[in-house]
Design a protein that fits this description.
The chain has helices at residues 2-45, 67-74, 78-109, 115-124, 134-144, 151-154, 162-173, 177-185, 190-201, 203-218, 222-227, 236-246, 251-280. It is mainly α. It folds into 2 domains: 2-65; 72-280, MetI-like fold.
Length: 287
Amino acid sequence: MFKKSMVWKKNKARKNFMKLLGSYTFLIIGALIMSVPFLWMVSTSLKEPGAVFTMPPEFIPRDITFDSYIRVLTEADMLLGFRNTMIIILPTTAIGITASALAAFAFAKMKFPGRDKLFFALIATMMLPGIVTLVPQFILFREFGWLDSFKPLMIPGFFGGAMVVFFLRQFFLGIPNDLIEAAKIDGLNYFGIFVQIMVPLAKPAIVTQVILGLLAGYNDFMGPLIYLNSPENFTLQLVLASFRGYYTSEWGLIMAGSVVALIPTLIAFFFAQKQFIQGITMTGVKG
């Protein structure tokens, strides 16, 4: 009996090891496949202009040069585009996430007449494609005199987003109501409960939404393309798009600009990946 038990445990351990090995092998292969375009972009940015289209292709350049990066930082308006992008996305994300978190807390933990109906109406707005409201928004902002300014790209974001409210509400619902009742007994009002209890517990979810909001604003191309006309107001994505006009055949320069634009997003994810993964998996205090 003991021998059978030991054999069964060994077989089970072997099966678990094979499953784990297969999972890691699959993930590693998938990661390598997904990283090929990025590696090719970096490789192209380090090549001499005449070595970009050599056959057979070279992933590791024979003569590595950083001239494309030097030209991008000196000739192009990358720094100006980055500054304009930060001016737009930093206050918009901070204020928008704060507004969304407050709304999510109200929908999750506060009781007031029509709460569920209001939440349903908010979620219903997610079913409306953004392309449908594009023309009316443009006309409205034109009447306000906001064209060729940062206002159309910032002010709507100050009021939060339906998806962010929905995500944070689902996270807040997982926090036990006993904590809120105990805080009320200690004399905290709803705002104090939100600041001192809900926000610390929901830190992974909030950080996740901050990262996603920053990435969405950082990579936004359509909005700046529609509302910005002056080159001094161009965001980083518009500056990158203008490379095709200024440097049509200089692919090394275009790829160097893309790599430089990608660096801030990699740094942000590197420092916040733990909170980001926790927020995505919806971990937290469960009731």
